[in-house]
Each structure stands twice: as structure tokens, then as C-alpha cells.
Specification:
The protein is elongated and about 50 Å long. The chain has 5 helices and 2 strands, in the order ααββααα. Helix 1 crosses helix 3. It is 61% helix and 3% strand. With 144 residues, the protein is an all-alpha fold. It has a two-stranded antiparallel sheet with strand order 1-2. It has a domain of 96 residues: Methane Monooxygenase Hydroxylase, Chain G, domain 1 (Up-down Bundle), CATH 1.20.58.760.
Length: 144
């Protein structure tokens, strides 16, 4: 959970959020070799972030620094642009998925440790997770 409200996000943070949202589906596939409906809301949020990056914040190389919005249900851009937007959003999500999958695959031992600890405890604080995984806490999570 975020420690504090933040009103401005950069592209790196938005990409990291998408990867985080995709992590549940990836972990499910790695651990159980199956896909369920449980990741729907995460996929929806990831797609919305990627679409905002493309349509609202000019964060795509393909479409540039232009705002593409929908007004009263009507598109204010061409069908060709809509197809480019869809392709760019898919590309962002696909690249994030591949990156997150590689990260979880490379750290499968940590994924399994964390999953087992959560099965046992149900809830964990950030400090518990850092200790369990033997990693250095982020600056904003260091204990005083």
C-alpha cells in the first residue's frame, strides 16, 4: 500500500505499477500452471494505466506528445489512430508482462517463500517481507 498520496507520477512509476498489477496472474501461472478469472481487475487497471499513458500523458514513442480523448462517447481521432492506440497499449502491457514474468521466474525461490509465508500469516507488513526475503528496505520503509 502506498505510504502517502502522490499526485504526479513519472513513466517509470507507471510501468512499475503495470508490472505489479500483472504479477498475480504471472505467479498463478508459474505456481499452478493455470489461469483463472482472479486477475481481471488487475488487468483492467493495468490496461487503463497504459491507455492513460498513451492517450492522456503523451508517454508513447509511437503516438507522441498528443492527447487523444473520447468526448461524450465520440472519438476525436480517426479509426487508424484508434488502431495505433490499441496496438501501443497492447505493446506496453505485453512488454511489462514479459519483464515481470522474467523477474518472477528469476526469483521463483523468493516468490515461493513469500507465498508460503502469506498462507501461514495471511497478512504481512513491508518490514516482514524485507526480512523474509533478505533484501534492503526502501528508504521510506526503513525502521527508525
Amino acid at each position: 500500500m502506498p505510504e502517502k498520496d502522490k499526485y504526479i507520477r513519472n513513466k517509470h512509476e507507471m510501468i512499475a505499477t503495470i508490472k505489479t498489477l500483472l504479477g498475480g496472474r504471472i505467479a498463478e501461472q508459474l505456481a499452478f500452471n493455470t489461469t483463472t478469472t482472479g486477475a481481471y481487475s488487475d488487468f483492467k487497471a493495468a490496461t487503463e494505466i497504459a491507455r492513460a499513458m498513451v492517450c492522456m500523458f503523451g508517454m508513447s514513442d509511437e503516438l507522441g506528445n498528443v492527447v487523444y480523448l473520447q468526448t461524450n462517447g465520440d472519438f476525436v481521432y480517426s479509426q487508424k489512430t484508434a488502431e495505433q492506440i490499441d496496438a501501443t497499449v497492447k505493446k506496453i502491457v505485453d512488454e511489462c508482462y514479459a519483464s515481470a514474468k522474467q523477474l518472477l521466474t528469476d526469483n521463483r525461490d523468493k516468490l515461493d517463500m513469500l507465498a508460503n509465508a502469506l498462507l501461514e500469516k495471511e497478512t504481512m507488513y513491508a518490514s516482514d517481507i524485507y526480512l523474509l526475503l533478505g533484501i534492503e528496505p526502501r528508504e521510506d520503509h526503513k525502521l527508525a
